[in-house]
């Protein structure tokens, strides 16, 4: 899964720690999601989108497979 989490954070002027605090996870979790090492749960993805005030599809996209 691809994500625009880092871009969304920058546009919202939030640090990894700020976002983590708002959704109840660790800063390391945010870092792992941004790096593509961890795919968030549906609930976590929805919480992130809610913080940014955008649809979840604007933050996370499925990668195309041939």
Structure explained in plain terms:
The protein is globular, with a radius of gyration of 11 Å. It is mainly alpha-helical and 66 residues long. 58% of the residues lie in helices and 6% in strands. It has one domain (2-54): Orthogonal Bundle (434 Repressor (Amino-terminal Domain)), CATH 1.10.260. Helix 2 (16-23) packs across helix 3. It has helices at residues 5-11, 16-23, 27-34, 42-52, 56-59; strands at residues 2-3, 60-61. It has a two-stranded antiparallel sheet with strand order 1-2.
Characteristic key phrases:
mainly alpha, 434 Repressor (Amino-terminal Domain), 5 helices, 2 strands, globular
Beginning-to-end CA distance, first to last residue: 14 Å
CATH class division? Mainly Alpha
Structural class, from helix and strand content? mainly alpha
Number of domains: 1
Gyration radius (Cα, Å) is 11 Å
Lateral arrangement of strands in the main beta sheet? 1-2
Looking at the structure, the CATH topology is: 434 Repressor (Amino-terminal Domain)
Fraction in helix: 55-70%
Largest beta-sheet details: 2 strands, antiparallel
Return residue spans where pLDDT drops below 50 for at least 5 consecutive residues.
Answer: none
Shape: globular
Keywords: DNA-binding
Organism: Spirosoma soli
Domain HTH cro/C1-type: 5-59
Protein name: Helix-turn-helix transcriptional regulator
């Amino acid at each position: 899964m691809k994500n625009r989490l880092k871009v969304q954070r920058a546009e919202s002027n939030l640090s990894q720690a700020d976002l983590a605090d708002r959704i109840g996870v660790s800063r390391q979790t945010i870092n792992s999601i941004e790096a593509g090492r961890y795919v968030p749960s549906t609930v976590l993805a929805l919480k992130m989108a809610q913080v940014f005030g955008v649809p979840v599809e604007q933050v996370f996209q499925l990668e195309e497979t041939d």
